[in-house]
Amino acid sequence: MTANRGTPHTGVREGTSPKSCHLPSPVTPSGDVALLLTNEALDEIARRVADLLADRQPTPAEPVGYTIRTLAAELHVSEKTIRGAIHRGELTATRRGTRYLIPADAARAWATPNPGRARRTTPASRSQQQRPLAAALDQAARSAP
Predict the structure, then answer these.
(1) φ and ψ at 29, to 5 degrees?
(2) CB atoms inside a 10 Å sphere around CB 27
(3) Per-residue confidence in pLDDT tens, the chain, 145 aa
(4) How many structural domains does the chain have?
(5) Exposed site from 55, 65, 81, 104, fewest CB < 10 Å?
(6) Residue 72's domain is classified under what CATH number?
């Protein structure tokens, strides 16, 4: 079968008449090809395409490192919290010019809860635990006549 480039293909084989075909012509008057599919066939095609695309979806790449601003935004904490962790030595960072660069693995380790890691005591609990002046005054008051 040779294709005639001057006329659009009607979907009818050579040697058969268009009247013997029970389907409407797949070529519209404007020359576009029209497909006649049932809803079930369209649903099956959509499911298969979705499965193929789901397998090809790239996973978001984790950054190599963070700045203070980007790590704070990622963890939904303030920049001051990140700076404090760096200055206390809880979070490893390298200073480059005026910025700190924080490796992704260090950020992940710092952000992951670790039950073995000691928590900081809050100022309120520290003041209740250590009150040497108050203890000395209480002792002096008890020993006074």
Answers:
(1) -60, -25
(2) 15
(3) 454 555 555 555 555 555 544 555 566 666 666 667 788 888 888 888 888 887 776 666 778 899 999 999 999 999 999 999 999 999 999 999 999 999 999 999 998 887 666 555 555 555 555 677 777 777 878 877 6
(4) 1
(5) 55
(6) 1.10.1660.10
